[in-house]
Amino acid sequence: MLAIYKREMRSYFVSPIGYIYLAIFLAVSGVTFSVTTLKAGNASDITQYFSYLLISFFVVLPLLTMKLFSDEKRLRTETLLISSPVSLSGMVAAKFLAAFSMFMIGFAISLINLLPFYAYASGSPNTQTIFGSLFGLVLIAGAFIAVGVFVSALTESQLVAALGTMMILLLFVFVSAFNFSIDSYVLRSILSWISVTDRFSELTAGRFDVSAIVYFFSLGFVFLFLTVRVYEKRRWA
């Protein structure tokens, strides 16, 4: 498992993917922070920045996951990977952790944006809201990366993997936007329950929502489990 993790981390830096991801993510986070917080005059409110950063995830995170398994299929190394002494769950976990580690590198660097916020905020910043939002973004990123890992396992095309992941993530982010046009209370409740943005809003409000945390962990677990099942089927096919 560790060998696969190291190989994936190395691949991010020997190919342009890792650098492209970091450049795009840091550019998006920097510009978004500048527009929503500094130039907009919201020197004491940072919640809008976190909301826009969440929306950007469905574009930038597929860059990390699109090659994880699709490249194995394209390069015909998938059979070798499946037959390695590492368990299928360990193989999937290693690839997931590599992508998540790359996200955390970019995310940690983007925290520099908070320095001018704390320096120029009018009054005392709501630290509870800030940490709740940061924690929520990390949980959501983990769940979204798991979705990307699963989609990457279904195709040998990086482009198809990226676009497929974007479509699924777009659904999770904006599904509750359809509530205004739906008369059924039950259906509206289901869409709100699925919605990532509705769950995230609880954390941005500074509330420790256990159900939201369980939801994000469960979402990630389900897609990683499905990825393992895909490779279990291929191993015995």
Structural description of this entry:
With 237 residues, the protein is an all-alpha fold. It has one domain. Helices cover 77% and strands 0% of the residues. The protein is globular. The mean pLDDT is 84.
In short:
The chain has 237 residues and is mainly alpha-helical.
Feature tags:
mainly alpha, 237 residues, 0% strand, 12 helices
Instruction: State the helicity in percent bands.
Output: over 70%
- Specify the number of helices: 12
- Mean pLDDT figure: 84
Estimate the strand proportion.
under 5%
Rough outline: globular
The span between the termini is: 23 Å
Q: How many domains, as an integer?
A: 1
- From N to C, what is the helix and strand string? HHHHHHHHHHHH
Structural class: mainly alpha
Low-pLDDT stretches:
none
User: What's the total count of β strands?
Assistant: 0
Radius of gyration: 19 Å
Largest sheet: none
